[in-house]
Amino acid sequence: MGQALSCGEREESGLFGAVGKGEVERLEAMVDADPSVLEETSGYGRLSALHVAASNGRIEVVSALLDLSLNPDILNRYKQTPLMLAAMHGKISCVQKLIQAGANILMFDSLHGRTCLHYAAYYGHSDCLQAILSAAHSTPVSDSWGFARFVNIRDGGGATPLHLAARQSRPECVHILLDSGALVCASTGGYGYLGSTPLHLAARGGSLECVRELLAWGADRHQVDSSGRIPYTVALKHKHRVCAALLDPSSAEPLVWPSPLKFISELNPEAKTLLETALKEANMEREKALLKETVYSLPSLDSIVGADDTASEASDVELCCICFDQLCTIEVRPCGHQMCAHCILALCCHKKPNPTAACTTAPVCPFCRSSITQLVVAEIETSNDLELEFSPSNSKPRRSRKSNFSEGSSSFKSLSAMGSFTRLGGISPGKIAAECNVVIDKP
Question: Would the keyword Zinc be found if you checked this record's keyword annotation (predicted)?
């Protein structure tokens, strides 16, 4: 940001030498001898001792300075706080300590009008980003601004943290922000090209992971910037062929994470991981078909999500009654019926979420037609009468690697065979196959 973080420019006083080396006792002795020493600054940026300690990750010095009642929101020449510099350099322990000491997360610098949230997103420090977002739930920010407004806070150029993370190719930060309520189709002001969405910026930077993440959260491939360009055009202009293949508006729509559904927002971490993995698998199958004619080849699904075929082909485990392909990993509440994560996801993604709609109609259980109010991880019962809690790390035993989704469609096509569910009488097709020694192939 146009400033050095050197600790040696004021070595004659010894203050910044002690800060840079983490010599807490020496620092405290200097303050006891002359309390005004804390008013000294370093370099053209006028960095205080707390700025230097926070940016260098000297947590002991940060704690000592805060214990001396030093203002946690002290400003340098560019109105940057120590929290901003700690977030910029990814010093998570210092970020947490400053927040704990009451640092204001809603302060703007004079360089680009950015907050500590912008800094964490821009430089890709997902742990710092998560810490700041967590603090926003319990600080006065949530009362005065509201959490949703804070997540989508704009800098001086009209860019939200999501815009910055997408442009800088920070997929982990993109995911955290989207999961926290960032607007996937928000347009910029003066940042980048006027009217750019996060998808435009990810296409410009050629970040395939960011493009995937944004599309999976409902980013509009047809939205234009102020120059009338869609993300596909931007990707082609910057010669990002793979991104362009995924962004081509004439290609199949990807599956979209059904975030508007209430029970999706209330998923526990294990169930959420299973569904996110299923979403990634389904969209990877779509990508494979789209990229066949490019020089780029995608890695196998096994390398993406990790294969763990602990259940053998002949094991008497209960397969999903809809696809006959994968284990029942998700249980529907309150009825208790079980399905695999892929079929649950297809049921929830039957229609692409409409951002203009006030609410989304919740899907019903395909077996009993009762409303779904909750999804939990199912318990698997094996032939050895052992009950195993299904975890995301053991989510892959299956009979085949074929996707349950047809190319270019998120329709839940297996639901058309509703009559077969009634005839089965609740007996698992996997168990029927085992008893009859018949191999059931997916049609």
Answer: yes
Nearest to 339 by CA among 366, 312, 370: 366
Confirm if 39 and 49 have CB atoms less than 8 A apart.
no
442 — phi, psi (to 5°)? -70, 130
Residue of 297, 311, 308 lying closest to 274 (CA atoms): 308
Overall size of the chain counted in residues: 443
What does the pLDDT read at residue 317? 56
Cα gap 94→361, rounded to integer Å: 44
With the C-alpha atoms ordered 157, 162, 166, 168, is the resulting torsion angle positive or negative? positive
Which residue, 259, 178, 248, 188, is CA-closest to 213? 178
The model carries a pTM of 0.73
User: Which of 124-133, 273-282, 422-431 has the highest average model confidence (pLDDT)?
Assistant: 124-133
Distance of alpha carbon 46 from alpha carbon 140, whole angstroms: 29
**How many CB atoms are located within 10 Å of the residue 27 CB?**
27
Kindly tell me the sign of the dihedral angle through the C-alpha atoms of 396, 402, 407, 411. negative
CA of 101: how far to CAs of 71, 115, 139, 336, 416, in Å?
A: 9, 17, 12, 46, 58
Alpha helices for 180-268 (secondary structure H): 198-205, 208-216, 231-237, 241-247, 262-265
Checking if the pLDDT of 420 tops 50, the result is: no
Roughly what angle, to the nearest 10 degrees, separates helices 92-100 and 59-67?
A: 10
Digit-coded pLDDT (tens) for 180-216: 999 999 999 878 788 999 999 999 999 999 999 999 9
Tell me: the pLDDT tens digits for 71-86?
Answer: 999 999 999 999 999 9
Instruction: Report the candidate in 225, 296, 232, 218 with the shortest Cα–Cα distance to residue 261.
Output: 218
Each residue's pLDDT tens digit, 370-415: 888 888 888 765 444 444 444 444 444 444 434 444 443 333 443 3
**CB 159, CB 188: distance < 8 Å:** yes
Domain residue limits, the chain: 264-436
pLDDT score recorded for residue 283: 81
CA distance 341 to 412: 13
How many other C-beta atoms lie within 10 A of the C-beta of residue 208?
Answer: 19
CA atoms within 13 A on the CB side of 441: 1
Separation in Å, CA 251 to CA 213, 247, 286, 291: 17, 8, 10, 11
State residue 346's pLDDT score.
77
Cis bond upstream, residue 334 (ω within 30) = yes
